[in-house]
Amino acid sequence: MSAAPERAPLVAEPLTAGAFAPFGEVLEATGAHVLINEGRCRRYSDLAALDIAHGRAGVSFFAAEPRTWPVEVPLVERHPLGSQCFVPMSGGDWLVVVAGNGPEGPEGLRAFLARGDQGVNIARDTWHGVLCPLGDAGTTVPRLFAVVDRIGTEGEPAGANLVEHRFAAPLTVHPGA
Amino acid sequence: MSAAPERAPLVAEPLTAGAFAPFGEVLEATGAHVLINEGRCRRYSDLAALDIAHGRAGVSFFAAEPRTWPVEVPLVERHPLGSQCFVPMSGGDWLVVVAGNGPEGPEGLRAFLARGDQGVNIARDTWHGVLCPLGDAGTTVPRLFAVVDRIGTEGEPAGANLVEHRFAAPLTVHPGA
Q: A58-108: per-residue pLDDT in tens?
């Protein structure tokens, strides 16, 4: 058996709506909005293309351990039955790893550096890494995210909405310049 | 014409799931959860009873001007066609004013002091004040919230999902002890 091939490290690029478009939407308070509440609030409406099959969308909270650079990404996953929208609640940068869906699994891996005031909605069945807030070394306080995704139906098989792909060669992500 | 009657000030009480139950749900990272992502993330699932009629739920961002104590509440509103879920993204306390739906309008006003790691889902057709982050005097930087609520359908009349009640006597809310 030969050794796992070397994999070139990924470099995180800034998260922008245009760059992320093949994978879903970026949620942020920029651009078109309406003024509500007597002008004291700006509403940026309908930022995520929620796409839920055979079930319903729900709101959950995720409390995730922060990671540090360089970030090791052992696997990616996809959800065939629903989009998954992540919104940070604790501030700070976080990392979004995504990939296209090739015939043999994930291909064209990309890494995006999201700010603490940006959310993402990952399109249904799109490969992505697990939730990855970025912290300082030694900081282990979990960071909170609100997640809008599919809530499974009673009695469906465990994992009905989860496909995992574990990399033969580990993927490492480095910060951009 | 007589002067508007005096109204006793409201005192904000801590936001707890039990106290808020008549008006909707409190979203917070406590209690039942599952471990995901190889144990590095806790998932608190399905925290809000989304209730959307004649349309669909969407995710929006609200950027709201902070207020200071005592808070003046000139009006409350309700949304007959959908629940409205608020999740803070910028940290800090915020104020949630709600009321029961009496025959003549809002009755039994309550004020809840929410923390920056707590969301609320306000039940469909429940009277509530507008989004109200609390800041220090002189701080005008808007605070960001993610909102999951009803996205109106094309061509429906403006205000189809909004009823407002403006108080004859202004309501003032003070911090709790």
A: 999 999 999 999 999 999 999 999 999 999 999 999 999 999 999 989 999
pLDDT tens column, B116-128:
999 999 999 999 9
The CATH number of the structural domain formed by B10-152+162-174 is: 2.60.120.480
Please report residues of A whose CB lies closer than 8 A to that of B118: none
**Length of chain B in terms of residues written:** 177
In chain B, domain spans: 10-152+162-174
CA pair distance A42, A36, nearest whole angstrom:
6
Nearest by CB to residue A59, choosing from B33, B48, B62, is B48
The pair phi, psi for residue A110, each rounded to 5°, is: -135, 150
Separation between Cα atoms, residue A62 and residue A24, nearest integer Å: 20
What's at B41, amino acid-wise?
C
Determine, for residues B43 and A37 on separate chains, whether the beta-carbon distance falls below 8 Å. no
Name the token pair of B78: 């309700």
Mean pLDDT of A117-138: 96
Q: Which residue of A has its CA nearest to B56?
A: A50
Q: Is A18 helix (H, G, I), strand (E, B) or coil?
A: helix
- Residue among A39, A46, A90 nearest B63 (CA): A39
**DSSP label at residue B161:** T
Strand arrangement, sheet containing A84-88: A24-27, A119-122, A84-88, A143-151, A56-64, B41-44, B34-36
Question: Which residues in chain A are contacts of B142 at CB distance < 8 A?
Answer: 41-42
